[in-house]
Amino acid sequence: MANRKQQRARAERLHIRSEINRRLFRATRVAQIMHITCCMSARTRCQTVTALLSSAISPKIWQNCKASSTSTDKPHPEAIPHLHAGGFRTSVTGGSHEER
Questions:
Q1: Where is this region: Disordered (predicted)?
Q2: Pairwise pLDDT comparison (62 vs 13), residue with the higher score
């Protein structure tokens, strides 16, 4: 009789242990999927915003460059916008070197 109780108790412990392991594995997998989804969502949002900004800004910049160019279709070198830490600059002339 004692042997049967020990077997039942051992079987119960094994069942509980396997259930805990199963739930831990599932929780870990869900966390991995959520992390991957979050990273992909952030990357997609970043790429989408970049594409939208690029498509909205580029034609306007090109129009400004064409308008400020001389008789040729190529923009004057000083009219080409330059990207710097604060955004686009339309000219690099004037001011000290530190202001650029």
A1: 66-100
A2: 13
Q: What would you measure as the largest C-alpha separation in the chain, in angstroms? A: 105
DSSP letters for the chain: -HHHHHHHHHHHHHHHHHHHHHHHHHHHHHHHHHHHHHHHHHHHHHHHHHHHHHHHHHHHHHHHHHHHS-SSSSPPGGGS-EEETTEEES---SS-GGG-
Instruction: Give per-residue pLDDT as tens, 56-72.
Output: 555 666 566 556 555 55
Instruction: Count up the domains in the chain and report the number.
Output: 1
> Domain range for residue 21?
2-99
80's CB contacts (< 8 A; 6+ apart) are 65
